[in-house]
Amino acid sequence: MTSVWLRYLNAADIDSLGVTGADIVDAVEDVLHDHGEDRVVFEPRTHLVPDNGGKGHFNVLRGHLSSQQVSGVKVVGDFVGNFERGLPSEMALILLLDPDTGMPRAIVDGTMITDARTGAMTAVGAKYLARKDSRVLGHIGARGTAWWNVVLLDSLFDFAEIRVTSKRPESREAFGEQLSEHLGKPVRVLDNAADTLDGADIMVEASRLVEPEPLVRKEFLRPGSFLVPYGTISALELDLLDVVDKVVVDNWRESQSGNPEFGALRPQLNAGILTEERVHAEIGDVVAGKRPGRENDDERVLFWHRGLSTTDLSVANMILRRAEAADVGTMLPYR
Predict the structure, then answer these.
(1) Count of domains in the chain?
(2) 66 beta partners
(3) Domain containing 84: what range?
(4) Which among 307, 228, 304, 231 has a CA at the least distance from the CA of 273?
(5) Rounded distance, CA 309 to CA 15, Å?
(6) By C-alpha distance, which of 205, 209, 219, 63 is closest to 138?
(7) What is the value of pTM for the model shown?
(8) Cα–Cα distance measured from residue 191 to residue 164, given in angstroms and rounded to the nearest whole number
(9) Tens digits of per-residue pLDDT, 213-240?
(10) Taking Cα atoms as reference points, which of 335, 289, 318, 330 lies closest to residue 107?
(11) What span is annotated as the signal peptide, if there is one (predicted)?
């Protein structure tokens, strides 16, 4: 019988490969273009909610990339209270599979990938949907994805002002200091959502609420603004869409899938406010040029992304190719 080995890539292995933010953005933008051209197989996410007293749940994401000839599955936990244990709230593993034989190719630490591909999705959305002259960023949240949101957005827009806030003072202060040191510019740390978002050109809501709370209100959205909400629990005012000119999603089916309590616009979906007719486009169609993105400087645009398995696979596969070329990682005997 033929021996089968697979490559295991841990966090240190990935760090050693020198992957840049631009590399991750390119991998995400490429696969979004493939979405627009129907070159992916994209399955609905599923949730596994253990009997753990509400501590957290798992998301299971599956997909296949035709242009890269790779299939895969990601399992990621979402455990808000993990900071009390010194752990990330989201930890993940990605299994990459050969679609011709079904053989496993690699097991990849997906924790950084989850954070980075989320920030890259925000950045690609802003590239097509935000004003080119956007100068002020307002960001709610200081979890892992928040770092990539701010860093990758700033790489595109070079903001004149960055405002951040989060629920815990210690997390937002540390977040602001780390960002300021990394970006080489001041970062304003504020203690409330209103001062952080009101009048910002680009607004990102990545909060970690345990129950819905209207942190993002419609009066914050000035003409020309761009809003990206993706907290697991809604932080939006229910009638916020009244002032939004365009709603773009990563995938309309995905927007409706999974637990009906999870998702930034779930209340709007459940109330019949957000419908398929209300959605302007999926982001893949915009990237592929099949639907227009921002068409004028006065539009208020909202981009809701819940997370696409295909972006995880694209980034993980890019990392695997580099690891194979550099012979990085641990080879594990499969059979």
Answers:
(1) 2
(2) none
(3) 5-113+310-333
(4) 304
(5) 22
(6) 205
(7) 0.92
(8) 9
(9) 899 999 999 999 999 998 888 889 999 9
(10) 330
(11) none
